[in-house]
Amino acid sequence: MRISFNRILCIASLFSGVFCGFSQTWEYKDSGTDYILFDLSIPEGQNDIAYAAGAQFTANSPGIIIKSTDGGETWELNYPLTGTIDGLEKIEFISVDKGFAVGYDLFLKTEDGGATWTPITVGTDIWRYNNLTFYNELIGYATAFTNSSGFQTYLTIDGGDTWTLGASSANMGTIAVGYADETTLFSTGNNQIISKSVDSGNTWTIVRNGTPTFVNLEVAFSDLENGLVSGEDGELLVTHDSGATWSSFSTGYHNFYGLHYEESELYAAGTDQDIYYSSDDGETWVVLHNGENVATFYEIRFFDNGSALICGSQGRMLKYTPILDSPTNEFSQVDIVYNRLDQTLQVNSPNSTIKKLNMLSILGQTILEERVVSRAYMSLDVASLADGVYLVNVETMDGVVSKKFVKM
To answer: Is domain 26-320 annotated with CATH 3.40.630.30?
Structure first.
């Protein structure tokens, strides 16, 4: 599994097995701006370069693009270096060099990694471009509200060099859109509708109706079958049959704008800088990060190594670094199994007896520490623990092994 939850610094030794040290999971970075950062883009296949785009206020106001070249540790102003531009809402890079940013009557293109940005004409009479998404380096989709003719869609099959007007946007959700495969897209929007297109976004069919006057906010699909949609009042909708049916979970009050779905892992980031997580395809959810009630997260994107950046209002930029289960050898092998039915954690060290065990929360706080007298097996009652992600360090006669488990 590519994505996990914290960082373990591991040093291997020929005689003593593996030593692992724990470091903090979440760390806020200085983005260099207090603008609202609505969107993030990380070019595929690398761990260093990232972009964020946004605006000074929620309505049309001066826009900004910032860039990091060190994995989100530091940021600098990328565009505009002088003067002002209209507010931006979406940014997408299809390679390290080539990217696009859109907003209020503005469609920008770069082919040199943001060194220069050029306005291009995609639609006419545009009030605001509000969606921009690519399936790969060639196939992309954009949407816009016009000043006089309503809502329009635009398609590209040559990496954004040319764009054509979509045939129809009837039945389409106008708030968010995302690819499920090369020709299948899902959209969502007003009245909590969820719509599906199987012809590259040319025509749309409503697959789920919601509550009138309420809205759905975002959509993210892992593949053709598995997708995630967020709505008001913290509602998270999950499908495993390409939108035919949906299961629902609700926190009661969040708005989740940043969604990510990969393999069986789902993330939802939004109000209060809170992040919810599911490790079982959306069947159960836990709070992964409990933020301060002063800002909102709008996007989450992952680097190739599993670390992530999460941006939001007030220029907030949060960096997340994964837990890596420590490498083991035949002498220090440890198996950890969480039994959800009886709320126990079984720890088994078949080749080396256990000397010490400690458990840490996702924030690095010690939850439990126990010294053991020559035991190869332990069963821990974890019923009193809050739902969430925990790290268990098991010291055996031959080294230290670290494992994570999700309490649900």
So the answer is: no
Q: What is the pLDDT of residue 308?
A: 96
Distance CA 100, CA 110 (A): 6
pTM above 0.70, yes or no: yes
Alpha-carbon distance of 343 to 153, in angstroms, equals 50
Q: Quick one: pLDDT at residue 240? A: 98
Q: Report the pLDDT value the prediction gives residue 332, as an integer from 0 to 100.
A: 60
| Residue 147 confidence class, pLDDT cut points 50, 70, 90 | very high
- Would you kindly state where each structural domain of the chain is located, as residue ranges? 7-23+325-407, 26-320
86 compared with 326, residue with greater pLDDT: 86
Give the tens place of pLDDT for each residue, 150-168: 999 999 999 999 999 998 8
pLDDT of residue 335: 86
pLDDT at 374 over 90: no
Instruction: Tell me the CATH number for domain 7-23+325-407.
Output: 2.60.40.3080
